[in-house]
Structure formats: C-alpha cells, structure tokens
What does this fold into?
Amino acid sequence: MARVLVIDDEESIRFSFKTHLMNEAYEVMTAEDYSSGMAAVTYFNPDLVITDVILGGRTGVDILRKVKDMGIQCPVILITGEPNIETAADGVRLGAFDYLPKPIRKKTLLRVTSHALRHKKIIDEKNRVETENVRYRLS
It folds into this structure.
C-alpha cells in the first residue's frame, strides 16, 4: 500500500484529500505546517508528498528542497491557491513532480497521485537494477 503525505494548513483540504485517497486504498498521513510535515517525512517515509505552497512562515518549495537535500526518492506535488510564475519556476527547477492550482478536483487528485506513484515505482526499480548490476560486476 502506497503511503501519501498531505501537507496543507487548511483542515478542509487535508480532510478531503485524505478521504479521497484512503477510498483508493492509499495509506494517508496529514500535516498542517512545515515542521510537522518534515517530521512526518522522516518517520512516515512517504511514497508521495502533496504539499501546499503557502504554509505560514515556510513554503512547500522549502519542503521540496529539504526532501531533495535529504536524498529521499519520492515525488513531491505542489498545490496552491495563489499560483504564480516564481513558485512554479522554483518547483520545476527543484524537481517537483507537478504544480496544481486550487481548487483541485477529486478526479485530478487521483490521476496525478496515480501517475506520481507509478513514476516512483519505475525510479525505484531502476535504482534496484542499477544496484544489482554494480553488485554483480564487483563479484
């Protein structure tokens, strides 16, 4: 079962995303800000992070940057109620899987989640095969 972390300061979004994703058999954890989100990244070990861009004093771009700096191999989807070129460009430059303006329809949420998790599965398999090849060459 894939693990999805939803980070958003709006309780209604956390609740609706969690409900929709759990109905599709995903294990879902939510967080309301940068600190609790980063703690969850560490101990929940998500397969996918969906985070709001605006999180009080910090941003979803900060979360994306930290996830990448930590070497965690999971896609990060940025969502925002205030889309702008600057955050979109930062997200793309840092490797965000997608950038979605709110409101996000259930169908869009489920489609993008499925694509991101499929992408992660392919990357994980590629890394596994590369590691296996290195081990084979060394022995």
